[in-house]
Design goal:
Belongs to the protein-tyrosine phosphatase family. Non-receptor class dual specificity subfamily. By secondary structure, the protein is an alpha/beta fold. Helix content is about 30%, strand content about 20%. The strands form three sheets. The chain has a five-stranded mixed beta sheet. A two-stranded antiparallel sheet has the order 1-2.
Length: about 220
């Protein structure tokens, strides 16, 4: 039995795979009806049957197509969780695939290693294109269901570019940075979480309060295939 490798257009044998489960990421999360996200430790035949999964999207390089999951159709994207990885090139194709399966009554599972960055980014692209008014709304929906999702900063730059395309020039997420640490930026949708994490020290007399600065995304961040 084989699975099609979309990147190189050749057949890839199924393999056995074992991973040490991480309890926090074990849960399969339903983002909207028929769309699920999880980490690799949840890839069991029992879970596939429980959620009636009809398409698996593997957003990793390191997790093989697992033999024990049988003949469920799947797409492997060969993505590393690094800011320089071009995940943008998959947004339209995979979003359309997810929409096609859901529209026909099927259930889609998107996974990476932990269900935090790569798979979350793919789901955010789909939600932005088909389900939500904006990328910000898509993230808020996702964070309510799976609070620990954290796409890396490079993926956020690519998501903002994609939102600009599918929403006709409108973007909803900016980057912010602390005056104390101007080298590090984060999307402003993370700001509330960041501020809450600082509550333990924000009243200290020798530390300044967090002061965000808006950073616009320049054209130089555009992703090239």
């Amino acid at each position: 039995m084989v699975v099609i490798d979309k990147k190189n257009c050749h057949a890839v044998p199924f393999a056995s795979f074992q991973i040490n489960p991480v309890p926090e990421y074990d849960e399969i999360t339903e983002l909207i009806p028929q769309l699920y996200i999880c980490g690799a430790s949840s890839l069991t035949l029992n879970n596939m049957n429980k959620y009636n999964i009809s398409l698996i999207i593997n957003a990793t390089t390191e997790v093989p197509s697992v033999r024990s999951l049988g003949s469920i159709p799947r797409i492997k994207l060969w993505l590393d969780d690094t800011p320089s990885t071009n995940i943008y090139q998959h947004f339209d194709f995979i979003s359309d695939q997810i929409e096609t399966v859901i529209s026909s009554g099927g259930n889609v599972l998107v996974h990476c290693m932990a269900g935090v960055s790569r798979s979350a980014t793919i789901c955010l692209a789909f939600l932005t294109k088909f389900c939500c008014k904006s990328l910000r709304q898509a993230y808020q929906l996702m964070a309510q269901k799976r609070p620990f999702v954290r796409p890396n900063i490079g993926f956020w730059r690519q998501l903002i570019i994609y939102e600009d395309e599918v929403k006709n020039g409108v973007t909803s997420v900016n980057f912010v940075r602390s005056r104390e640490d101007p080298e590090n930026v984060l999307p402003d949708v993370y700001l509330q979480t960041f501020v809450e994490s600082c509550r333990g020290w924000r009243f200290s007399s020798d530390k300044q309060k967090f002061q965000p600065i808006l950073e616009t995304v320049s054209e130089s961040t555009e992703v090239r295939a």
